[in-house]
Amino acid sequence: MKLFFAACSYFLLIPLLQGQALKQRVDAYLLRELKKFDVPNVEVIIVTNDSVIYTKSVGGATSPDTPYYLGSVSKSLTAFGVLTLVEKGLLTLDQPVTTVIPTLHFTGGKKITIRHLLNHTSGIAKKTGFDVLPLLREVERAGFSVATTSLPGQRHEYSNMNYALLGLIIEKVSGRSFQQYMAEQVFAPMGMTHSRIGSSEQNEDRVISQYQYWGPFAIKRSQVNYSLTAVPAGFICSSAADMGKYVQANLNNGTVGTTNALDSNLMKAMHTPWTKGRAGYAMGWNQGSYNGKRLLQHLGSTATSYSGIFLLPDDNLGLVVLTNSNSMGFSEGLMEGILSIITGGEAKSPSGNELYLRWLIALLTLFVVGRLAYKVVLMWCTGHPDNTTRSKEIRGFAISILCFGGGIFLFGKITNVPFTSMLKLQPDVGLLILLAFGSTVFIKLLRLVQLMAAPLPPK
Q1: Average pLDDT in the 316-345 region?
Q2: Which CATH architecture fits 36-342?
């Protein structure tokens, strides 16, 4: 009998010991890696479908209940909101978008459905996602045309515009603002009491302080201003504790505790990639694999935040990581390291090259500014140039403007990100690019001003 009770105790202790070992490994990893890079605040939570097995707050004035900007992780919550309308019978996945908002127009009259928007297979280009979508009342009054570059359902192209439109659809079908509907029908049923939707001004005092990198230094900054129609795609605010509950709902077929927040069949549809295979974009989730295990995930970034949510359905595990700064790769590498630990692998260090790259950006910026200042001083000291060079300088100025405009244009074409967005997301990198392209234009302009101000030679 004693042997029987000893065996039972041993098997009951195994999960506890495994959980303790997991906590120790994640703690050691965070302690080691966060010393290497200036990350102001990090929240980590690991859950199963019915319990929280790890939570960690790193940084000052932060806790699992502190709201962070989610970036594109917002898309998963917006998709959840759309599916609650489907569950209520107010919407169908294969319903054309124009039957919901007739004043929306797509180039070519293409039949784009709710499912296409959810899967990013509408044919709307990534670059269009940086355009501002008007409010619902303005779209209904004056209409709005969206350009498409391919037939709907043919290929996947990630675009914020898809989810901005879904936000309008939620408002149109529910008769409530996006903020009201999400609060009542998504956040409340799952007990997400620290999740917020609002403008950057409204969120200023209710979310964690925001930071942006200037070289290797994290500097306190306000979140960039954004339109309310962009919130469904990238500006919902939530806490680690709340997002842990949301991940639990996804692990538990739409149920959190005793609350059924979404029909299990719709939750399955939400997790099914548009390709119907093992990899691809589903509805607010990317499906793939990690260390041989099925993985559903979504990453998100704003000018002042980086976040990630991860589901390992076969292991009944979920992970959420929130930060209040947007590094170029360190945060993503940190998330991958934690993910590796919870899947039984070895955690690699996030790229240490980023710190060197940040210093390089700072030094290059100083070099370009110093070079520009030197040339300005040299021009001032040498006085007016010879008037015989006037036509040559005019041609040089025109060529420098063409090179500047061409460089900025090519940047947008190659990255599919408008340069103005780059200045908001990574201001130190954007400033360096602007200085590198624009310093020649500035010098040529000063030279031209000198020439125009110089007295004409006597005839």
Answers
A1: 91
A2: 3-Layer(aba) Sandwich (3.40)
